[in-house]
Amino acid sequence: MATDATPSTAGLNTWIEVSESAYAGNLAFFRALVGDDVELSAVVKSNAYGHGLLEIAGLAARHGADSFCVHALEEAVALRRAGFEQDILIMGHVPLARLEAVMRHDCRVVLYHLESARRLAEIASEERPARVHLKIETGTHRQGVEGDDLRQLLGFLETAPSVSVEGVYTHFANIEDTTDHRYARRQSERFRRALRQIDDAGFRPAKRHAACSAAVVLFPETHFDMVRLGISQYGFWSSKETRLSYRNLARGRGDGEAAASAADGVLRPVMTWKTRISQVKRIPADAFVGYGCTYQTTRPTQLAVLPTGYADGYDRKLSNAGHALVRGRRAPVLGRICMNLTMVDVTDVPGVEVEDEVVLLGRQGEQEIAAERLASLVGTIPYEIVARIAADIPRLVVA
Ligand SMILES: *Cc1c(COP(=O)(O)O)cnc(C)c1O
């Protein structure tokens, strides 16, 4: 877990450094946005978006997050075993056969159908109620309940005092992919209607929530009692559109261009993914590099071999397309990325040696490889770039 001294990386081929100061700064920005009365919940599903579940949970707890949201029961159990006593909301499906573990570990759990409600009513008691957060369908059309199904579910819950409706929430479908927020507003309307329906049925859920990162930033009216902060606690904007919308907001508040530019700098990426050079070699002109002979040199070339590949989560689509940072310079990936190895061109980088530290994602000196850049190279979003970094790579908390 977190230590104050930078841990040694001498024995590692590849590792992730997690910056405590960047994380703390991001969280402080969001705390200021939501205020002290709104529960700030750190979404740490998928190994904290690849940043390391326990490492990030430690930083989140230390720097002012109130609670956690996870996808799976297993993630909640891992947090409890590590000693975290904060509230944890399990947002994904828990198999009926495992709902007892939700109770045992005192977690909040999403509820959107009668089957889970009935099972929870059986295993919970009024002394130790199940803490459910109703998930309302407002237009994303994945998990959620609405209309008659909601009425029926509420009808059952009225007869089940051992199931406590602690929360009600929804999730936006189209908030980060556009600067046109009409669909999101419509979802907000539907959510408010469902809240009235729930209120009319006599329930007084203490935690109403809707906001993911983009909504936290762009729509204060969606903060309600709690926000679910995912990608942006790690220093990434949800999308270019979100960054742009936030810039426009800053400008529109009357703060002008300077504020709009400053808005770009409010988030700092937390992760730096590093590896070290395992071999340096000179190869002639016209030589092929890697499987499939997809790259042929046009000049005598200094090649560095990196002990990291697609099995580590370094996307194979970065073959002949990505860059790594070596001694503060950009070194192009040559040929295909292998399962565990990647070759880069260091011909123009002076003084390269075996075991030099290399950055695959993040900053080195003046250079940066941004998750957004890697995402656009491989046709995905920053979320996938970081979430797919292999869980067995060590995550080290640094200052
Ligand atoms: C993942 C997730 C979030 C966090 O979204 P970000 O865009 O990463 O902030 C919030 N709510 C739900 C239901 C989620 O699945």
Please summarize what this structure is.
The chain is 33% helix and 23% strand.
Structure overview:
- It is a single chain.
- It is built from 12 helices and 20 strands.
- The protein is α/β, with parallel strands linked by helices.
- Strand 5 (108-111), helix 6 (114-123) and strand 6 form a beta-alpha-beta unit.
- It is elongated.
- Residues 43, 45, 91, 171, 212-213, 228-231, 238 line the site of pyridoxal-5'-phosphate (PLP).
Features:
single chain, 399 residues, alpha/beta, eight-stranded parallel β-barrel, seven-stranded mixed β-sheet, 12 helices, 20 strands, 23% strand, elongated, binds pyridoxal-5'-phosphate
3D shape: elongated
Strand order of the largest sheet: 2-3-4-5-6-7-8-9
Largest sheet: 8 strands, parallel, barrel
N→C terminal distance: 13 Å
Give the low-pLDDT segments: none
Ligand catalogue: pyridoxal-5'-phosphate
Helix content: 25-40%
**Alpha-carbon Rg, integer:** 24 Å
